[in-house]
Every structure is written in C-alpha cells, then in structure tokens.
Amino acid sequence: WIVCCGGPAWGAVAGRVVAAGSRAPIAGARVRLQAQDDPLALSDADGRFTLPVEFGGTAVITAGVAYDCAAAVNYTTNGVFARNGASDVLIELEPMPEEDNDAYVPI
Length: 107
Prior knowledge:
The chain is 0% helix and 39% strand.
C-alpha cells in the first residue's frame, strides 16, 4: 500500500521574542501566524515559544505584546519569515517611543 497526503504537515516553529537592541527576553508576547487567530503561543519568562503550525514552506510568524499604559515599556509588533520546523526563530520587538510626536499628522 502507498499512503500519500497532499496537505501540509503539522509541525512547530520555535524561537525567542526579544527586545531589539538589548536582546532582553520579552515574556507574555502573543506569537501566531500572520493574520491568523489560531494557533497562539505565549512567550515564557525567557522569551521562548513553540507555536504548533500547519503550513508548508515559509510563513510569517508575528509577535506582539498588548499595550499597557501602566507598563514601563511597550513594544511594537513584528514578524519574521520562518519555515515549518524551524527552532531558531528570533523575533525582535522595538520599544514604542515614550513621548508624543507633536509633528505627526495622520494621512
């Protein structure tokens, strides 16, 4: 017998979410496939995550932390390309500016 399946295989993408520049780990970041609600993984105290995925080839993996006005630092979201099965994905989040930009004009 020959068994064949035509769909993408289940796997996982693993890595770390860190602050850009300092590379300090970011705990509690929500990691997911771009534009998808599920599956979802949260980064641990070391910034590490493992996201179960079902895709073939390469996809964009995103990370973000919910904005908290009481937090000392908030971060922008970011995404990186990753292959199913990758275990060394590094997602760097930039800190948000601490001051308002008075020159900003929305388009």
